[in-house]
Write the structure tokens for this entry.
Amino acid sequence: MLTLSDIYEAQKRLSPYVFRTPVIRLKTLDEALHCKVYVKAENMQKINAFKIRGALNKALQLSPETLKNGIVTASSGNHGRGVAFAGKLLGVPVTVVMPEHAPEVKKAAIKALGAEIVLCEKSQRFVIAERITKEKGACFIHPFDDYDVMAGQGTAGLEMMNQLPKVDKIVVPVGGGGLISGIATAVKGTALYFFTRSTNRSDSMKLYAPIA
């Protein structure tokens, strides 16, 4: 079970390596949405994505024995880049299994950090990653189904509550659920009141269309 204590420990662990990203007011959206709108600018994070928080929090807790044969993960891009960053920091090889049609810019960013990329059909990512993990005797870092990864993502929530302590609604994008699990745990544990709403890519487009 993920706890607030786990997220505070992750924050201490990550503090030498990640940025405390700013919260930015989007005044152009205030009128359209009838409220004050802020964003947590994780695009200004190292690797330009929040995924470094979870990947690195997991990797930093692994023993040298566990890491000796490297790390394997499955990702469409940002988590893979986070794991590649962790591998470079710790001096261990990383293999990222990616969909063959993943954006070239994400492939290039992962390669630039020294990781090996294995391309496959999107639906086969986890199957192939599991096989490679067994063949190499490596450690697999799941992109979302891992409490240490969730705790790392939750550090963004701790920062938000420090930066905007009176926030009353938080909208979180959802893919696998690691980010919202971490943020909801962080916010619930530190706020007197709060409301979280998840949004998938389809919901995001519905929001974007009327205000674009």
User: Anything to note?
Assistant: The domain at 51-140 is CATH 3.40.50.1100 (Rossmann fold). The chain has ten helices and eight strands. The first strand starts at residue 23 and ends at 25. The CA atoms of residues 43 and 109 lie 14 Å apart.
